[in-house]
Every structure is written in structure tokens, then in C-alpha cells.
Amino acid sequence: MTYPYGPRSTSPDPTPGCRPDASAAPLLNPADAAHELVSPRALTHVRDLPPDDLPAYVYDLDGLEAHVAAVRSALPPAVELYYAAKANPAAEILRAIAAHVTGYEVASGGELAHVGSAVPGAPLAFGGPGKTEAELRRALDLGVQRFHVESEHELRLLIGLVAARPDADARPVGVLLRVNLPAEPDAGLPVEAHGGPQRETDSEHVPTQRVAPESCPGASPRPVLAMGGLPSHFGLDPDQLRLLLPAFAEEGAATRAGLRLRGIHAHLASGLDARAQLAVAGRIAGFARTLATEAGPWFAAQLTEVNVGGGMAVDYGRPGERFDWAAYGAGLGELAAR
Questions:
Q1: Over 80: is that where the pLDDT of 298 sits?
Q2: Which whole number is the average pLDDT over 77-103?
């Protein structure tokens, strides 16, 4: 999720209404949950399938398109909506939502080729850690203009590849630097893994914890994955990111090669409700504002986007309780306008 950034912004205190009684609804058994999660049209289709055609994946593409259209309409016009192909890369799904998303995020060379073939010409953002030189080169050859850079090594590879392009291909290549912000114990996000505090050396472990917002009495815990706050392959720590900024100054290596810094990207947690997601978005935007103040006018002029990630909660035990896109869109609108 990306919204336009203005250096004049101030940090908001988004507090959309919490519905304490919503999470208190009883958990459904799997059969009942399936009837709420799956559209009647899909259920009817499954019931009519002969036994030899089962098991099967069945998608209600019309229902999916209507849902994505509703999500898009809940977001402010200036907010961009990218679909992460890793969620479900089926070509039919990619095409069904094409009219309602800004583009697609891909995280590997395989996804890059697949999505490019399924929805030709759609804007692509190449994210994910561990990109190889061959994958970056292929992305440039296919015209990808947005890269989420997660390490100094990746940035150096990209600089070298972009600098070596023929002059005819010398279109500016956009970069969003992914930051891995430290955890804030009072932010409502997990700061410990199961079994105790996360050790600094456990860089490959993604901490998970069941949390319920204190502001919602009676809410039952939900699983949350924390992607930030610990040493990780998922992005740069703030000090590392600051050291890379000079490369994008007027005479910096990245600028001379043909890279343009578009903004900051972060994905700090998954499994959050709208209120918690807005708190995360506000924190990421706050870091971007601080960075713009520290780096000076040249950086503030380039910083046009803040990508606040995804990770919206889906409660399969209570499928009637959906992520509050209306509240989230309203909160993002306030955040972008400040």
C-alpha cells in the first residue's frame, strides 16, 4: 500500500473505533466457517462436481473482483494498491483484479515472468530479499521500474546493472529502500517469539505472538507475525539505510547510474486489524518525515512515496468479521493529507 508523501506531514494519532463485541463472537466449526467464507456460487459448483474432479481449487472470480473493487473504493484516490502475487499467483485471479489494482508485487524471477505473462504491461514492483543478479537483470530487461531494495549488496548490484544499460534503455529506475524499524513494546505489536525474548542472532526466525489490543476489552487473541524490530534479511536497519542515502544525492553513484529514490518501504507485521495497521502506517510515515528532516531538502524533494506494506488480518474462525477497509481508508486519507 503506497500513498504520496509530503514533507510537511505531521504524525497522526489514528484511533478508529474498536468494536469490543466483534472479537467476542464464538468460533465457528470448520463446516460452518466454510459456508461463510465461500460464496454460495462456489459451494454450488463444488457440490455439482463429480467425485473424480475432487479435490479441487474453486474460485468465484466475480465475487473476488467485487471485493477488490470495494477495497479500492474504500481507499483515497492517491493511494496505490499493489497485489502481492505470492498470495495467489493463479493467472485467472491476476486478470480478474487487474482493473482495480495499481499493479503487482513480485518476489522472485519466476513470479516476475509469470505475472508479466498473465497481465502484460501491468506495473510491477520487484520486492523480496535475496534477489540475484540474474533476477535483477531480467527485471530491468522486462522494463520493471520499481524495486524494493532490501540490502546494501542489492543496491550495489542494481547500480552496476543500471549503469551498464545501453543509452536507449536509460529510463530512470525507481527505488524504495525497505527499512526494518525497531520494535516498540507499547505499539501493540509482538516483541517476543514463543518461548521468550528473541535472541539477536536468530536473524532467520520470524517472531509470532497472539495479541489482543488492550483498547478492546473482551477481544480474543489473534496470531500476529512481526516482520520488523529484530535483525533480519527483510530490509535495512535505520542506521544502515541512512548510510545509503548519499548514493542518491546529485553526484551519488546511484543517481549517476540512473536510479531515482522514490521513497521508503516497510512491512512490520501481518495479521493486524485496521486500528493497528494505521498505527503501523503512522510510524512508518513518521520515520520518513524524520529522515527527510535529517537528510535535507534534496532528499525531501525525492521522497514522494511511503509504502506501508500489507498484512491485513483474516479471521478464519470468525469469517463474518472482516478487516475494516472503510476505517483504514479514512485513516490513510488523514495521514496522507497532513
A1: yes
A2: 96
